[in-house]
Amino acid sequence: MSQPEIPKKQWAQVIQKTGGPVEYKEIDVQQPGPDEVLINIKFSGVCHTDLHAVNGDWPLPTKLPLVGGHEGAGVVVARGELVKDVEIGDYAGVKWINGSCLACDFCQQADEPLCPKALLSGYTVDGSFQQYCIAKAAHVARLTKDMDLAAAAPVLCAGITVYKGLKESGARPGQTVAIVGAGGGLGSLAQQYAKAMGLRVIAIDTGDEKKKMCLEQLDAAEFVDFAKSENVVKDVQAATEDGLGPHAVLLVAVNEKPFQQAAEYVRPRGTVVCIGLPAGAYLRAPVFETVIKMITIRGSYVGNRKDSAEALDFFRRGLIKAPFKVVGLSELQSVYDKMVKGEIAGRYVLDTSK
Ligand code: NAD
Ligand code: ZN
Ligand code: ZN
């Protein structure tokens, strides 16, 4: 393959300080280091994590100035001299885990997200809200040429994360999983992965648009509207066939409240998996019920390279069809405005050429 032409300047969305605003402007294209690749990002999903990064919601500082984004799908245009297994012209994806040391205790046992030296795309290193993004070759997601890059983008964080979360839940085919925040980016993909894994889904979110999407497009068995329900705990339990509650709960909401309810409606022996990261939130569970119902409560954080490959393979096989809307990279602020109001059903994907 002939060497693609790489411009010196590119368009990007940049924040100068925590709290924003994001600024659409031209910045320099960087050169990849010896173990890195440069990816011409075609599409990038917008994850709620990107908004947490702008707002400084978490007790972990971002780099500044910062280019956000960690669901970047594109084409490899340059590689460092140590990179042997990624070719120029390959389709590749930038994930949240941009790189890790590959040598620590956690990396050795394939828990790369727990690596103390992990580099986080769009957080501690610049991410995919730019036309040319760098990632460590060992960690870039391998995409195949038959993939639609716009549809693949949300899989790179949302898909991998919920696939891992469902595995961590221990739920088995035939069992029921409640997905809390089902109408959002992670939630919509979680419903598709759950279905592909043979699970029955209770979708929990609010509003008619999300209800319709969950029941008609994503095949959820039941929908509980948390804003309309007078008793969410009772309604979720009633949505299971025997009334005893779901075997697993995937918390992907951006609000603290459901993190304090899930232990009450999960089934005895069931598992509550915490994935969403609302600012300053705390978990709460009644000790009595936790003990006598033998409940497990755990956290789940993105996925390792193998989880990523598996999640992408579900997508490649046509099992994951979650709704997304494409707008230009220049429109990121308007996507954040909708996200703040909880108005996004599914995912927004940015086209970096606009
Ligand atoms: P999103 O904004 O697309 O979706 C969040 C959904 O939660 C919305 O549909 C909203 O209506 C719903 N919601 C709000 N309050 C609720 C309630 N009380 N009950 C039920 N639903 C409620 O966000 P997203 O991009 O899907 O991200 C969700 C969260 O997951 C964010 O906090 C993000 O940072 C986090 N996240 C975590 C990981 C991880 O590895 N653990 C990875 C990616 C994202
Ligand atoms: Zn994300
Ligand atoms: Zn490590």
Tally of individual helices: 11
Strand content: 15-25%
Strand elements, count: 18
CATH topology of the largest domain: Quinone Oxidoreductase, Chain A, domain 1
Q: From N to C, what is the helix and strand string? A: EEEHEEEEHEEEHHEHEHEHEHEHEHEHE
CATH superfamily of the largest domain: Medium-chain alcohol dehydrogenases, catalytic domain
Which CATH architecture of the largest domain? Alpha-Beta Complex
How many discrete structural domains? 2
- Straight-line N-to-C gap: 27 Å
Protein name: alcohol dehydrogenase
EC number: 1.1.1.1
Pfam family, one: ADH_N
Domain Enoyl reductase (ER): 19-350
Walkthrough of the structure:
This protein is of the alpha/beta class. The protein folds into 2 domains: 9-157 and 303-351, Quinone Oxidoreductase, Chain A, domain 1 (Alpha-Beta Complex); 159-299, 3-Layer(aba) Sandwich (Rossmann fold), CATH 3.40.50. It is built from 11 helices and 18 strands. It has helices at 48-55, 105-108, 149-152, 158-169, 185-196, 208-217, 232-238, 262-265, 287-292, 305-316, 332-340; strands at residues 9-15, 22-28, 36-45, 66-67, 72-79, 91-94, 97-99, 119-120, 132-136, 141-142, 176-180, 200-205, 222-225, 248-251, 271-274, 296-299, 324-328, 347-351. The strands form 4 sheets. Strands 3, 5, 6, 9, 10, 17 and 18 form a 7-stranded mixed beta sheet that branches. β14, α8 (262-265) and β15 (271-274) form a beta-alpha-beta unit. α4 crosses α5 and α4 crosses α10 (305-316). The longest helix has 12 residues, at 158-169. The protein starts with 8 loop residues before the first strand and ends with a strand. Bound molecules: nicotinamide-adenine-dinucleotide and zinc ion (ZN) (2 copies). Nicotinamide-adenine-dinucleotide binds next to α1, α5 and β12. Residues 19-350 form the Enoyl reductase (ER) domain. Its EC number is 1.1.1.1. Keywords: Metal-binding, NAD, Oxidoreductase, Zinc.
